[in-house]
Amino acid sequence: MFGSVLRARRRRAGLTQEALAERSGLGVRTIRKLENGLIRRPRHDTVRLLADGLNLTGEDRDAFVESALAEDDADVVARRPPPVFSLPSDTADFTGMDEQIAVMEARLAERQAAGTAVPVVALAGAAGMGKTTVAVHVAHRLRRIYPDGGMFINLRGTQANPVPPDEALGRLLHALNESAAASARSLDEKVERYRLTLAARRVLVVLDDAGGLEQVAPLLPGHPGCGVIITSRAPVAGLPGVITLDVQAMSESHALGLLRHIIGDTRLSQDPGAAETLVRLCDRVPLAVRIAGARLANRPQWPVATLVGRMRDERRRLDELRLGEFGVRSSLAVSYHGLDETGKRAFRLLGFLDPSDFAASTAAALLAVPVAAAEDVLDRLADARLVEYISKTGGRIRYRMHDLVRIYARECAEAEESAEDRTTAVARAITQALRAVEAVAEHLPVAVRRLYQPDLDPSWLAVDGGYGPELLDEEPMLVAMVERASALGLDRLACALAEALVFAVFGTYNRFDGWDRTHAAACAAADAAGNDSGRAALECGLGQLRYTEDRFAEAKHHFQLAIDRFRAGGNPHGEAVATNGIGTAHRELGEHDLALLYHERAREALSALGDWHGVAHALYGIGHAHRELGHDELAAHHLEEAARQYRRIGHHRGEAIAIRGIGLIHRARDEHEPAEQFCERAHRIIETTGDRHLRCYTSQALAKVWIRRGATDRARPVLLNSLRVCREHQDRLGVALVLRTIGELHLAEGDAESALHWLAQAMTIWRHLHLRLWQARTLRDIGAAHAVASDCTRAHQHWAEAMTIFRAHRTREAGELDTWRRSWGCHCDPDVLVER
């Protein structure tokens, strides 16, 4: 009897009834009645409080609770029918879901707590996620909480022939050996008989693969002594008080643990890398991992890497994840065939487009319907767990398919859609994306501009898919679209979207990987189709990519290829734009005479063609080169012309960079006041554009003027912020430029040691970029730091090396040797500095 157990536990703990009452929060009278057998069936919360008061844990606590559950009046025990267990067997290698199981058990163990509601837990998730396995596992673990049985019924809610509630109740009553079940004919009569039968029992009911509220509601017991676990693809809406848990893919560690259970630790440890790849190829879906493990277990001669190699081919992956008629494909097919026709087509076309993630506008374009209608379709796909919500961007939900689902969707598309229909749908989606990208493309401070805007099939433009700038937050999808267009032979779309992305995303935010991938894919499509004009434009894009990556020699190569292709194709405009581009690469390499040659040639051609954007870029390049060569009047003239031209065409970034260039002329001449005015003016313009990256360059120019004017404290935070942003944008040239300026700041403060620290970092980057002129400028500063430290020998060495480079490039610094010496207090023989 529970009273005897309680008394023994209390005495063993050395407690009086009064002390236990105080520690548990119960009354002394209640404890006396329990020990004397006057209360034979204590409430669950009473037992819990007593266990807490007795400080019981682990097995002792479980035994104490079980002794309370086992307590029954003799007549009740005599009348109680034998337990009914129709649960499937538990899974011996069950792994993971610890948090969800804890929540389930806590909820389902509350049946004796205050309240009269039946505890219900629902598990919702996609096919193959192991919902049934979890439900059965928990039901077995709770057998002592539900001693009268555990019942299981597959409702087939996602299949074509779901079990009607009437039939389900008949099965449950039969399992309960309810003899009066046959006389109950109507649904209401069966519900009443079912609930009466369970009223005196503690039974846990598992309703597997439920289809919805109408199917489930009649199957819920009425007595709180029972509990219910429901599994379904979509959450069952409308059930009051239910706790719904989302069952998702396993963690990688749990997936590996499951695989280890199946194939053994020795085999898995022979190639842990292959095992990790295998569970990733299985999407960490329990069903897929279990099938893969079973296949390996049945083929002991296979290393894990063998199955990995077979599964890498997406077209074979679902074939590999099959055991007889049982597999991932058949599991997904149940959800697919439960969709309406519009849902099926959306599923197929999304799989064929193959995006990593997408917005409703993408589905709208594929289906040629408004976005609102596409959102309704995607909601149905989400309910079927064939897509999932991942985030909201700009007020719109984004979606994705898991890899195995996407592969199955693509199979369905290739089997059920004609090649023409599926290609047209994809072309429509990519065209709409192109329109959105073009709408937000920006003027960049570069020498090239968009060169490829072909006429497209009018049928691809027929639908207003409601696209907007939110697409630009989906760079992976846009990159995938270029690659898909290339694979489908849509060369014009591939080239146009790849180029447009440079001016909307890649060039603005230095997204080098996407830039490289899209241009590689589009180049392949252009080559295959013989699209020479698209290919030439892409060479310009590759030249600009290498320029932005600070790979200037490679940039020259691509711009030259573009010049050759445009010339061969009779496109003088493209040739002139590429000529401007190659001029910028020569300029950054310190090859200013060649830069002038190319920029002058480009200006003449672009002026004749009326391309005033290109003319402005050429004028800036000419002014930049003259400034480096010390031709200050010519430099100022061309930079002023460039600023006016940029202003006239509304190119704010270009205007700011040209004005900054004028400020640099004044700074080089130690004309600090006008230098600050021009640099400040450029900085204000960039502030209005919101361009954080370009702002680093105007900030650096302004900070350097402040350093020259002794305001180092004002410059320091500005430079440190610019350094951080340049690093975020992978701008190595910008990083080195700011590092050098920070070194100059410490030099101005007389801190030679700190100056050398920062200058050495800048020098490492200049050498890696092969920028000899910038190396020379930093060598000059390093020499100055040694002079400040009274180490004239090293100062002379660095100044001599710098002078050699300056003279080779014929820059303005070649005539500034005496100025350096005077600035840093060196009074040595000047000839010593030029012995090299």
UniProtKB/TrEMBL annotation:
Pfam families according to UniProt: HTH_31, NB-ARC, TPR_12
InterPro entries for this protein: AAA+_ATPase, Cro/C1-type_HTH, Lambda_DNA-bd_dom_sf, NB-ARC, P-loop_NTPase, TPR-like_helical_dom_sf, TPR_rpt, WH-like_DNA-bd_sf
Occurrences of domain HTH cro/C1-type (ranges): 6-61
Any one GO MF annotation of this record: ADP binding
Stated name of the protein: Transcriptional regulator, contains XRE-family HTH domain
